[in-house]
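Renewal narrative, Specific Aim 1. Our central claim is that a sequence can be written position by position from structural information alone. The example that follows is taken directly from our test logs and has not been curated for this report. It begins with the structure tokens describing the chain, in the order in which they were read.
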């Protein structure tokens, strides 16, 4: 499998030939109650009703259409499971409770771990809904070796997958500029949700002039370094892995070599 090959290339060899890894940067919330599907359906960017057929990737936005949270939602039949960055899990639960009002919905920590793999998919696992190149996931109380986060960053960069707090900035990022459409994170045919009007307008009435893209990095530059074309700002460099990175760029200025500190940046 291509994903496993990339992981082995980075690591040299997978420790103990393990096929499962615990992503310690993720947590799983559990949403129960009779209104759980309709409740989330009115809040997030993707169709939660489709979880009967498999997982969905979605974002929760501000009323102004800016990014607040992103997560994977699955159904176990009795509840919805929300796979979210661990550092943001409590804030997401608080935000959801703010909207709960009289809905029959309960939100709690599931106590489950996010287990990821990059080879043969076991029973009970599902392919990452953002891209099959990201391997599979399952939720369990089992133990597993910790996922090498540097190797995971390499995989994210290779597939232009943003991460909360790095490329996805709270109350700042627009999800279409961050590639959510390509990552199956937006359903333009579903009903209203918070921030939907701004997202729909960006899709149907404007042409994106800025966005998150893969770049080559020739030299050394840290995440957060401004990218320049001569004296003109062109964007910002985010995650860097070896000689590639993710960058937020102005497309009109990304047609020639750029610089980030002493590194040469080129759009891939």
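The sequence written for that structure reads:
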């Amino acid at each position: 499998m291509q994903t496993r090959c990339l992981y082995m290339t980075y690591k040299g060899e997978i420790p103990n030939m393990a096929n499962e890894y615990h992503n310690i940067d993720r947590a799983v919330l559990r949403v129960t109650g009779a209104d759980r599907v309709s409740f989330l359906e009115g809040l997030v960017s993707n169709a939660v009703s489709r979880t009967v057929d498999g997982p969905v990737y979605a974002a929760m936005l501000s009323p102004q259409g800016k990014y607040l949270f992103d997560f994977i939602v699955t159904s176990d039949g009795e509840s919805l499971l929300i796979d979210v960055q661990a550092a943001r899990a409590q804030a997401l639960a608080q935000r959801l409770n703010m909207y709960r009002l009289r809905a029959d919905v309960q939100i709690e920590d599931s106590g489950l771990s996010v287990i990821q793999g990059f080879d043969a998919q076991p029973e009970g696992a599902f392919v990452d809904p953002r891209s099959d190149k990201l391997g599979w996931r399952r939720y369990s109380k089992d133990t597993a070796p910790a996922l090498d986060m540097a190797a995971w960053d390499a995989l994210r960069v290779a597939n232009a997958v943003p991460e909360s707090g790095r490329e996805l900035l709270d109350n700042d990022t627009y999800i279409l500029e961050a590639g959510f459409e390509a990552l199956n994170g937006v359903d333009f045919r579903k009903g209203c949700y918070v921030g939907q009007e701004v997202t729909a307008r960006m899709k149907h009435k404007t042409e994106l002039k800025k966005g998150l893209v893969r770049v080559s990095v020739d030299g050394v530059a840290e995440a957060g370094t401004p990218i320049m074309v001569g004296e003109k700002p062109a964007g910002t460099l985010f995650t860097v892995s070896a000689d590639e990175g993710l960058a937020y760029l102005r497309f009109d200025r990304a047609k020639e070599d750029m610089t980030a500190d002493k590194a040469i940046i080129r759009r891939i």
